[in-house]
Amino acid sequence: MVEIAEIAVSAAELKLGTEPVQGDGVRLSHADPKARYSLRARDAKVLAAVIGRALPGKIGDTDGGIACLGPDEWYALLPAGTDLPRVEGLPASVVDVSSRALGLVLEGPGALAVLSSGCPLDLAKMGVGRATRTVFETVEIVVWREAEDRWHVEVWRSFATWLWNAFLAVMPHAK
Amino acid sequence: MTGFRLADGGRIDRRTKRNFTFDGKARWGYAGDSLASALLAQGQMLFGRSFKYHRPRGILGAGVEEPNALVTVDRGPGRVTPNLRAPSVAIHDGLKAVSQNRFPTLKTDLIAVNNVLSAFFPAGFYNKTFMWPRAAWEKVYEPIIRRLAGLGDSPTTRDPDHYDATYAHCETLVVGAGPAGIAAALEAAATGGRVILIDEQEEIGGGALSDPAQWAWLAEASAKLAAMDNVTVLSRTTAIGHYHQNFVVAAERLTDHLAVNEAEGPREKLWRIRAGEVVLAMGAIERPLVFEGNDVPGVMLASAAKTFALRYGVAVGRKVVVMAVHDSGWRDALALHKAGVNIAAIVDLRRDVASDLIEGARDARIACYQGYAVTSISGGQAVKGVTIALAGFGKGQQLDCDAVLMAGGWTPTVHLWSHAKGTLRWDEAWGAFVPDKTHENLRCVGACAGAWSFGKGLPGGLLPAPKPLHESKAFVDFQNDVKARDIGLAVQEGFRSIEHIKRYTTNGMATDQGKTSNLNGLQIASGVLHRPVTEIGLTTFRPPYTPQSFGAILGHHKEALFQPLRKTVIDDWAASHGAVYENVAQWRRARFFPQGSEDMDAAVARECRTVRSAVGVFDASTLGKIEVVGSDAAEFLNRMYTNPWKSLEPGRCRYGLLLGEHGFIIDDGVSARLAPDRFHLTTTTGGAARVLNMMEDYLQTEWSDLDVWLTSTTEQWAVIAVQGPKARRVIEPLMEGIDLSPEAFPHMAVREGRICGVETRLFRVSFTGELGFEVNVPAEHGRMVWEAIWAEGQKHGAVAYGTETMHVLRAEKGFIIVGQDTDGTITPDDAGLGWAVGKKKPDFVGKRSLARPDIVAPGRKQLVGLLTDDPQAVLEEGAQIVADPNQPVPMTMLGHVTSSYHSATLGRSIAMALVAGGRDRMGETLHIPMPAGTISAKVVAPMFYDPEGSRLNG
Lengths: 175, 954
What we know:
The complex is a heterodimer. Chain A has helices spanning 44-51, 111-118, 160-170, and strands at 21-23, 26-30, 34-41, 62-63, 66-70, 73-79, 92-96, 101-107, 131-136, 139-147, 150-156. Chain A is α+β, with helices and mostly antiparallel strands. In chain A, a hairpin with a 2-residue loop joins strand 5 and strand 6. Among the domains of chain B are: 4-129, Roll (Ubiquitin-like (UB roll)); 163-281, FAD/NAD(P)-binding domain, CATH 3.50.50.60; 616-801, Probable tRNA modification gtpase trme, domain 1 (Gyrase A, domain 2, 2-Layer Sandwich), CATH 3.30.1360.120; 848-952, Elongation Factor Tu (Ef-tu), domain 3 (Beta Barrel), CATH 2.40.30.110. Helix content of chain B is 21%, strand content 29%. Chain B has 23 helices and 50 strands. Chain B is elongated, with a radius of gyration of 37 Å. Chain B starts with a strand and ends in a 14-residue tail after the last strand. The chains are: A alpha+beta, B alpha+beta. Chains A and B meet through strand 7, helix 2 and helix 3 of A and strand 9 and strand 38 of B.
């Protein structure tokens, strides 16, 4: 029987950073707190009327903090405290998921490479202002290209510690 | 001593010496040398021992096809890599390489006795010989065979290196940077698209590296590629495999070519490349010839000798004989002659050879033997001479030499083409399979496409010989020690398909995957069977193209980052209160909270007693949660779950049981109707993703007409269970807007309001049998609310309890845990949950299966309680249950123990079990045979505490 030494740092010991981390050409930080809603509807017009906001029409487009993730699905990322009305009696669904996810921000000329290391999409071809649901390795994320070199990454709360440290592992000279 | 360094030539840097060791002896080479070229330059011909017969072996090829010269490279503790091919190992100062598969030394290998006894080790020997007696396999045969088998040693310590990984995208991916690949890359790059060019060697150039006439062009092309910012050139990178839709995985070796003290950063990098078009320019591999003694060290491929001379400046011998059936052997011989290697003779089985080749040989004063074949080799650990004979049968003629070069024609490298399910066609001129059709945007160029001129030749590799096939030691697969006669034997044994012949003989099944042996094996089988090659078929190529480290495939998924460990927002609090954890799915959950020197049993007993007598607080945040919204929400749940949902009033909760189509329980949970069109579902911790996927699947494929949407809210809500007779008193002072009185807020109800100033969904539910509440708050406030409840609880003697206590408390009440008390073959009735099946419902998922004959047949395993005759004996979960402990083994097993605990509340052990016909056995005594003796237990109803449920109203 071969004895394998204990690993130096276990998954249980990983910490979710609180302060921004700078690497060569890339900075990792937390996004400001947000209000988050999962919006679903058979007809976008019905939903838009209920929440009183415009909805982007094409999958991957964003408009006023709302991204279209699927044929009947939108994801709203709005300033903290924004309240959207619950729908009742209409073919639509508004669910508050503000607490479900955390926002991480990768910015700088090296951000694309960090994100591309674990995301199978061709992110270089993703336009500014576009958003999509995808994965980073095995973890589901929503990626929002806010500017040429600024990427907002939504990740479910309990996966954030792993993702933060997975980003650090590929950020050159992160400190 | 045979091989030596030529006076000039090669791409090595003769001003820079590199010192290394081989089998512990000091050796040296020049910068740019491979381990093979440096050792050959110093006269080393013996590189390894063969797998089965331990025959001495030398170098066969100069590339990744090398089957013989496998070495272990030692880069320090944890960094020992076996089975590296010496021609592909770049030397550096301090390199420590060791030969393999020999005992005790390469020159004197005692296990070579296998070679003397080889007549007793034919193909299929192991399958036949070690069958009987059956018992001897585990104790005698297997341990001995295991010690002898295998190439190289497995690692025994943790790999200290780390490995990088990335995705990459390009319009054109070119695999192989020989002349054809470089041309394809330049052409693609000119259109402006992103181009990735990858090559497995130390530098790009492929075959051009062995042709000084192309070096000027190569330098120019390399510079041009390097200057283009839309081109990424990756050398030391092997394309491991081609997967669907032009997804190519490649591994880049970053540090192994550097001295240990110069190696910084990751050892390898995995490139996961999605390409618009893939161009395969992987070249071709020369085929050996199959004749008696073709494995003696010093017998090698002509292309290898050419590479050693022209790329590395190393002559493989002082007197070299070429055995060709192909023009390329003549061309290589002439190139070697020009480079200063003494070619003594060219032997060619063909009588007719192109006149320019014959003239070239004559001008170089090389003796030519057309129509001749080599029939044997003299020498054991090195070539001393050859015997040649006219047409292989004539009178033997001796030629002195110290190296023999084989030119058996060329095999296009179609591995990745085949990974992509590209079809192949047989090409007579090549005597090989070449690419035909593909459904991917994929094409081959250069030699791997069959579009390269190596000249003409004979297709078959087996030379005519005076000895009958079954007496000859002519090797086909060098690494697995498969001889031509083994293939003959396989056919004699009745195998016809190449897939069967391959497995019987193990031809092509070594770490080189038959790069030099597949086609020769195929053609020999074709000859023996008297059927055309195309009717015998070709074995399938599978990734990886060459052996690949696990490290690169794992990338960053190792150690702490191996996979996410999910923690709740209350996890830190639990840690600071001494929690002992257990992992549930990807979550870690507090299992119990020991105080002082308490062990688990003591802590759990205290926690259980406190919950039953006062109150306990439990972090249930990991429960899966799904918000179901839409006017058809109730209809949807009615179809999914076994029980009726449409009649559930807003503000009330219901236990839901979820079956698969097969009628077996797959999940359960308590769910609440918040509004006519809004439900808050809960699932098991481990089932959350599975249940959501299943529900989405039904919604999207079966019932797309329903106006209902599902949103995972598992992580939106932190859940704090407050359970026990004092539960109401603990939360009451913290609540706003919810009347907690039993009249206003009965068991199985839900209310929305505020706690500690934040919104809450408050459930009055109980998994303990006590008065209980589950406080749902947005996760960001979970820790604050937990601490407030904890502080309030302290006034009432509250404990924090973990999953172990939760398990005991629910077992006392007979509540099942899906996956523990069920195993995927348990129906609601089996589990005693028949009451949860809506008898009047027209349909629900799994309903039809519940009427299947075997589901309604008597004698199915049913969930029962067990009380051991010795109240302190705690059964082992998973233990088998029998009716008659005196029955001889194998006994009739009636079922197994699913849950078993010591109950502090009851002062005795309790258990649940699945037992055949269990409910008809109430009061029977059954037996649980254990290593330390048989335990007897009485069958009872699975309900051990407060059967009338009065405590819920506490």
